[in-house]
Amino acid sequence: MTDQTTLHATCVTYGPSGLLITGASGHGKSSLALTLMGMGATLVADDRVIIKNREGVLSAHCPTAIKGMIEARGIGLLAAHTQARTLVTSVVNMDKIEPDRLPPRRLITILGVEVDLVFGKDNPNLAAALNQMIKIGRVE
C-alpha cells in the first residue's frame, strides 16, 4: 500500500540520500537547495514535492510540470539537472531556530515514517553542515 501527499517544500539528493527542505515562502528553501547543488547535491524538486510512503520507506518525487526548474529569487527560474526520486533521510525546517549548540537528535513523522530533523533558520553554517551530514553522517 502507498500513502502519498504533496508538500510545499524543496528536495535535493546525494545519490540515494535525500534532504527535504521545509518552511514558509521566502524562508530560503530554494536558496539552500542552490547552495547545496553548488556543493554536489542534485535537485529532485523545488516548491512542490510529492512524498510517498511505500511499506515504511519515504521517497520524494517531482511533479511533472516543474521538473528541472528551481527558483532563484531576484533572478528567475533556472534549469537544473535532476534526479527523478530519492529516499527522504533528513528534513531541515527553515522556520525554526536551533536553540542548542549541540542539539539532541530530533525526528519528524511524515506519512507515518520518522526521519531526522534539523532546525535551520538563521544558521550561518547550515549548507556546509548539511552537506557534511548527508555525505558523511553524524557522530552519535
Can you tell me about this structure?
The protein is mainly beta and 140 residues long. The chain has one domain (2-135): Rossmann fold, CATH 3.40.50.300. Helices cover 14% and strands 44% of the residues. The chain has 2 helices and 11 strands, in the order βββαββββββββα. It has helices at 29-38, 126-135, and strands at 2-7, 9-14, 17-22, 42-45, 49-54, 57-61, 69-72, 76-79, 85-93, 106-110, 113-119. The strands form 2 sheets. Strands 1, 2, 3, 4, 5, 6, 9, 10 and 11 form a 9-stranded mixed sheet that branches. The protein has a two-stranded antiparallel sheet with strand order 7-8. β7 (69-72) and β8 form a beta hairpin. α1 crosses α2 (126-135). The mean pLDDT is 96.
